[in-house]
Amino acid sequence: MFKQKESNKNKNIYHNTTNKSHLFELRSRGFHLFCQFIFLSILIFLNITFFVELLEIPSTGIKLFQLSPDEYFIETIKISFYISLILLGPIFMIEFKLFINPGLVKDEKKLLSPMLVMSINLIFISILFAYLVLIPAAIKFFIVYSQNMIAPLWSFVDYFDFILSIFLITAIVFQIPTLQLILGIFDIISGSNMLSLGKYVTLATFIISAILTPSTDPFTQFLLSFAILTLYFLGSSFLILAKG
Predict the structure, then answer these.
(1) Cα(118)–Cα(210) distance, rounded to whole angstroms?
(2) E strand or H helix at 173
(3) Residue spans per domain, the chain
(4) I need a labelling partner for 82 at 20 to 30 A (CA). Which of 3, 39, 166, 225 fits?
């Protein structure tokens, strides 16, 4: 009886120690991410002219203006934060991998590295998709729609809030395959079950795209919906192949 109580006491001490170490590691990694976010934001802000000029390229045919003396300064700080948040994605995924890796079995660890590579690639693909496809399509739609009625004079703040929102939303939704792989690794749902839910996902995708897309034009919403559905079915298929 005494030995059993002593054994239970030792188990409780072990679990408490383990939980505390996990919590400490989580806080430590969170602090590292925050420091990296601040560092990236400062670095981007010091080179903000380059990023502003790069982001202004899709605005061909539009004249940007500022409504107040401090508008440009405040908006460039916001731009720095947005870009840092997006670029922090790969670093976040690496930290996530390192955090959960000790608690996974051998077969699960085999899927972790491909998931990390896929996630990082999807972040950069999402940036290119937003910059080369979504943003030009949305801007062209609004210019063409109003070209015979009003001149395209857009506020600097409104323009950059608009395109940065598209960048951020696109980066998030492009992580759908990563989320699917995580759910598959922990056996929450299988790839075949995901495929069987395809018709419901298709309906939900168009609704979600209409809510998430900063642009109100249907063409941009359709492009985002098409991208989400493609990623969803590719992620489901990849999970089926990975789990064998």
Answers:
(1) 26
(2) helix 156-173
(3) 2-243
(4) 225
Rounded Cα–Cα distance for residues 231 and 118 (Å):
12
- Nearest partner of 244 among 121, 107, 124, judged by Cα: 107
Place of tokens 């839910």: 197
One-letter amino acid of 27: R
DSSP assignments along 61-125, one per residue: T-EEE-SSTTHHHHHHHHHHHHHHHHHHHHHHHHHHHHHHGGGS-HHHHHHHHHHHHHHHHHHHH
Task: Count Cβ atoms below 10 Å from residue 74 Cβ, excluding itself.
Answer: 12
Euclidean distance between CA atoms 129 and 162, whole angstroms? 15
d(CA 52, CA 57): 9
Name the packing angle between helices 71-100 and 2-46 (round to 10°). Answer: 150
Q: Which of 52-56, 59-63, 75-79, 194-198 is the least confident region? A: 59-63
How many other CB atoms are there within 10 angstroms of residue 173's CB atom?
A: 21
- Tens of pLDDT, residue by residue over 194-243, are 888 888 888 888 888 888 777 677 888 888 888 989 999 988 888 888 76
Helix (H) or strand (E) holding 60: none
Distance CA 58, CA 160 (A): 11
Q: Which residues, including other chains, have CB under 8 Å from residue 166's CB and lie 6 or more apart?
A: 130, 134, 135, 138, 213, 214, 215
Name which of 151, 230, 242, 152 is nearest 192 in CA terms.
242
User: Angle formed by the axes of helices 106-129 and 156-173, to 10°?
Assistant: 150
